[in-house]
# Entry
Amino acid sequence: MPAHAIDNAALGKYWTDDSMRVPYRAIVTPGRENNELLPLVIFLHGDWQDGTDNESQLGGYGNGSMELIDRAISTNVPFVYIAPETTNAYWPPARVAAVVRDAFKRFPIDRRRVILTGISDGATGVWDTLKTWPACFAAGVPMSGMTETSGLAPIALVPQWVFHGGKDNDTDVEKGYDGEMVGSRAVVRALRAMGGRPIYTEYPEEMHVIWHRAYATPGLLGWMLNQRLRGKACDFADYATR
# Structure
């Protein structure tokens, strides 16, 4: 594990400058050279971290996601990490896009290298947002989530690394909540049937909370930061309508 560790206070506090006023925390890791544009990683928290205080989303070291920051600092890899906050146990895609749009104005971001990751309801938010803007994100890394198989076809070719516990005691790895939204194993199977090539890591003996282990996966950060859009970058100018 990286030797570095940061305090939550090292992450700046921001609010989007639109009517949503979405709170988010952000940090740029060291190592930027020659005014290069940097990849952006956005972390979507789970429902027990809901709020408006711009604090709770970083609980539990961002539920392990801040280990990506540690790893970047220890290897002098620059990127922008952002952790927004939501309410009502749901991530409206427009809320995510509002944060991306605001971040574009504040940080030196490569718009072709925007990566979404999230846990539990945040993982569902990752899939919902990818489905809404299938040509705008370089990759997705959902953990312990679920989604409907409808709408997956447009994102089948979006690079995804999916994580789930085989004995998940909250969101069943196969059936989700026994409704239209299914768990990661079924989602990955559907993506592959559509021609996608998602990476899938399942921990056979783990339950719902796998995130510290997953975010510490060797090679995960490098894989995320190496992803790039094939087509034109998005500016999310129409985010409020979706």
Residues 16 and 105 are 10 Å apart (CA to CA). The two ends are 40 Å apart (CA to CA).
